[in-house]
Amino acid sequence: MTVAPTIALREVVKRYASGTLALQGISFDIGPREFVSLLGPSGCGKSTVLRLIAGLDEASSGHIDSPALGSATTRDTAFVFQDPTLMPWASVFDNVWLPLRLAGRSKAEATAPVQQVLALVGLAEFASAFPAELSGGMRMRTSIARALVTQPRVLLMDEPFAALDEITRQRLNADLLAWWQSNALAVLFVTHSVFEAVFLSQRVLVMGARPGRIAAEVLVDEPLPRTAEFRTSQRYAQLCREVTRALEVASAADGLSA
Fold first, then answer.
1. 7-257: what fold?
2. What are the boundaries of each domain within the chain?
3. 3-class DSSP state for residue 84?
4. Which of 169, 209, 222, 240 could lock 44 by a disulfide, CB 3.0 to 4.6 Å apart?
5. What is the C-alpha to C-alpha distance for residues 189 and 97, in angstroms, rounded to an integer?
6. Which residues pair with 32 in a beta bridge?
7. Contacts of 190 (CB under 8 A, 6+ apart)
8. pLDDT, tens digit, 9 for 90 and up, residues 28-45
9. pTM of this prediction?
10. Alpha-helical regions (H) of the chain
């Protein structure tokens, strides 16, 4: 039996009121438990794709199927931005409680799921701390906990680790894969990093610019969980070269069409 995709885009076009054509003919699927990265140069429309899937913007033409656009509740889709966007006056607990609070769940009702997700992301001992008391990595963990507490079907992530140091970034990459597997959700992850995309993903979608489109797809057919040893393996290096080459080809095509 063929499993229906959780997210499906068909010939999606986005043109802004200014006349700028941001996306042209974007088509791809993401399965119910699939981790896919969207990789490409700045300005190619990666974040625009996320916003369309999340229902934060509307396509000019084409068709999009996603939980955020259907009859399901908006809690089926969670969005993690590059900036953790935490409330500085609120504790870690209260920041994570926020989406449940907006859904009408009292603090007493939310205590168990909030505590559970804080334990999942390694912040159980920091429930009473405030964002200013946390490291950058811990603030991002709080943001991810806030996304996971609603038990979404889809997790959209827009370069969440871009501002972090490499050690913290690699640690959160490994943790994110563990959280994804334990929560059985579809993830679309936007990044500028070839190395991050290859480590995290089952598939890497490479975008070209002017206007944004899917230029290539690279399958990362490596078993899970991905370990630190994978980063130093010949297969990892080979896949990184393949993705880098796809980016170079897309960029060369853009230069020819400019």
1. Rossmann fold (3.40.50)
2. 7-257
3. coil
4. 209
5. 24
6. none
7. 37, 38, 39, 46, 47, 49, 50, 157, 158, 159
8. 999 999 999 999 988 899
9. 0.93
10. 46-54, 92-102, 107-120, 136-148, 166-183, 194-200, 228-231, 234-257
